[in-house]
TrEMBL record, chains A, B:
Superkingdom classification of source: Eukaryota
Taxonomy of the source species: Eukaryota, Fungi, Dikarya, Ascomycota, Pezizomycotina
Protein name: Arginine biosynthesis bifunctional protein ArgJ, mitochondrial
Family classification: Belongs to the ArgJ family.
Major location category of this protein: mitochondrion
Enzyme class, first EC level, given as a word: transferase
Catalytic activity: N(2)-acetyl-L-ornithine + L-glutamate = N-acetyl-L-glutamate + L-ornithine; L-glutamate + acetyl-CoA = N-acetyl-L-glutamate + CoA + H(+)
UniProt xrefs under NCBIfam families: ArgJ, PRK05388.1
Source species of the chain: Cudoniella acicularis
Enzyme Commission number: 2.3.1.35, 2.3.1.1
Annotated site, Cleavage, chain positions: 261-262
Amino acid sequence: MALKSTSTSGLTLTRLMIRPTTSKYSMSGARHYSAPLDGTIPPAKQKYVPTSGTYPKGFLVSGTHVGVKPTNKSTPDLAFLASETPCAAAAVFTKNKFQAAPVTVSREMLKRRNNSDVRAVIINSGCANAVTGKGGLEDAENMGAEADRCFDPPTDGKGGSTIVMSTGVIGQRLVLEHVHVPNSLTLARLPIQKILRKIPSAFEALGTSHDHWLSTARAICTTDTFPKLVSRTFSLPSSPTIEYRMAGMTKGAGMIHPNMATLLGMIATDAPIAPNLLPSLLTNAVNKSFNSISIDGDTSTNDTVAVLANGAAGGKEITSESSDDYSIFQKTLTEFATDLAKLVVRDGEGATKFVTIRVTESPSEVGARKIASTIARSPLVKTALYGKDANWGRILCATGYSQISEPGMPINEVPEIVPEKTSVSFIPTDGSPELKLLVNGEPESVDEVRAAEILEHEDLEILVRLGGGKEEAVYWTCDYRYVFNSSEAQL
Amino acid sequence: MALKSTSTSGLTLTRLMIRPTTSKYSMSGARHYSAPLDGTIPPAKQKYVPTSGTYPKGFLVSGTHVGVKPTNKSTPDLAFLASETPCAAAAVFTKNKFQAAPVTVSREMLKRRNNSDVRAVIINSGCANAVTGKGGLEDAENMGAEADRCFDPPTDGKGGSTIVMSTGVIGQRLVLEHVHVPNSLTLARLPIQKILRKIPSAFEALGTSHDHWLSTARAICTTDTFPKLVSRTFSLPSSPTIEYRMAGMTKGAGMIHPNMATLLGMIATDAPIAPNLLPSLLTNAVNKSFNSISIDGDTSTNDTVAVLANGAAGGKEITSESSDDYSIFQKTLTEFATDLAKLVVRDGEGATKFVTIRVTESPSEVGARKIASTIARSPLVKTALYGKDANWGRILCATGYSQISEPGMPINEVPEIVPEKTSVSFIPTDGSPELKLLVNGEPESVDEVRAAEILEHEDLEILVRLGGGKEEAVYWTCDYRYVFNSSEAQL
């Protein structure tokens, strides 16, 4: 099989000389697909795993087993996404001061390429390649370079064109648990040779079928209980007859498990977007989606969400922020990212509830967001939700401390919160009327039976009206499972 | 018994005409003392409950059963502290925007009296009197006024002289769970008549014995598993022959329990302190003690810590911030408040570990505090500690995101954190050498056996060296109990 074309390119990468059919690029082993199908997905989560999808033109994907963790004997742990043509691409990265090697490498690559001419994404799970020093940076660079080698070599002098991501345990502990050798530093890094050796077969395995996408989504999982894959079609005003497609995957973010939870996301679309517009489109979308969810409140060293647009569906390229196409695409991307982000919340470890926190009537969007975030992160709110307790006092309490200062600092002014204007309601997800708990700072006479009915459902919206403006913000969160005492927990 | 003196006073309150002996002011029922002694204290916590104490002169206390919660048939839930002579007093209150009625009433009283001539503290547990509107304010005022009536009426025209605190469930849900009536708003308030009726007998029951103090500490508890009482003696340079005393109590702060956790603290000393100095002495002490602990990260509507100084032990009044006496008293008060605050952490619900987070070598104290606070609150760190997992990656991760901005905001500069200068160690509490996990950003070859040994102990210190300055901050936190999956939890 010809992995490289014989043609040469100018400033852009040449076309990938493989045909996007599934038959030619089948996976090398059936087990790679079996993880989502072998019954390990909890029954309550199976409804979130799609059985079909509409995938963007010109993108090929594969999920391959490497065995990054020595204990992993068959589950795919290497995800490869490739585009037949160079893409506009953008990514948002963790703001954690300790950034993993792949974050540094990918950020620099996108900067060097001005968000243009990106060809692939390569992701391993099982090891985060974080806090791994210079060796870790080399590992991440080598992963990208090995993926690059599957394509025609770029001749634009801008180096690699692959986004690299890793997720798993930070530092060396993963390997140390299994192998005892004198110098752990050599083990702190990725088992990079194993990964590099498998990249060519991952490339061979690329395909476009739903099973390919599902296997790839599976390969980026760590503590996730189900693969998180979403696809959709959309159209743009300037080309109403073209069906554009968007597909993406994500992984979370489990509270409580002893492994590190990292949030990764990858979105591909065949719509044509000017590279210089993609970063702000993605940032806007992520702020209202991946940055508006809370599982455990921790921000990882590896968090990365990337978008690639290859324009393979044709039509007019979006080149202006003031165009209708831009607005529609922004809306589409934000909704899509939100759908993905919500799946992460659905998979919060031990979670039984999916809770929307909506803060409205705020003088500022920033204030509303801070309040929504604080409620979403409050352990007391989250444990009350697990206990199906209509405890609006805890919601109010979290609202009230959401903008307080650090100890020793002057107290914030907090213009957003006026106790006697604040109202709290439960909004049922079945369309029935809201249940008012607090109205303008005064407790309502709560129908406890009705409250219990609403809290029986998996989904719930908590609405906080601040009564002081027109801005709003939304967060999505889950409950915290807890144990009452040790005799019940049997731990 | 003469509850009021026949003498009149000038600008200060008259002396309380009761003698500070325990025999005369015995409690009216033995059950009031029984809660800490009847075996309900978990065996592992019994070592934190003192069997004797050295209590400050001129202070009398009692814990009385009211039955604020209808289900409480015998446990003391009304705490009364009185001083024979008017006190200098100060308090720090929650910064939560939704402040409970007793917070408002006590704050105004202390302001009106310029921190002088305070006579008593009255505290109920079982209902927080928070988010209770004007009615709740009246209730809190009436509680204070009823306590005031036990003393000679003040003639200084400054109104009441009693600090009021409440702790329990916010709003109306507590009572609604037990009594169903059409209009819950009338039930949202304290069962104030029950409390007011008992205040005279609480006054009659005042005494100075260790049992009195322990019963009073018991009366302020809610979800606490043991009463938190500390006492000590100290001396001041200007009066080396005088033995001063300090006693105090606190209550927490349980993660996970469906009731509201409020932090209250009350400290009494017989040292003579000028009223104008007491607020800053207390604020400094609280910032390094009660504001440096984290159980669940939530800041309640009722949090209050008060200090009263009656000068009954004699000696020279502390009137200057630049005196040696001031420095020594500040140090004493801070250490004492720290001892109290640590007891709250010891009682974190489900907690198995007591963890000191020390962040050193920081360019700023504020930065060190923010980092320590973030590590102490990280659910991933707390669950790793529960799992006895030497997961320094999570510690580093929390360090790295401790100063990140809200979504959509520009990223902070965070001068405190330089990855390649950051080191993380476990400091064993048995005096054995530290276990280095990360040195200048490079992972150490960790002796897993040694790490496991250290993590077996209840107490542990996590030391983060930032390598960039000389400031430091300390936080105390506990672990989070968690369940691996539902079959283990049997929930």
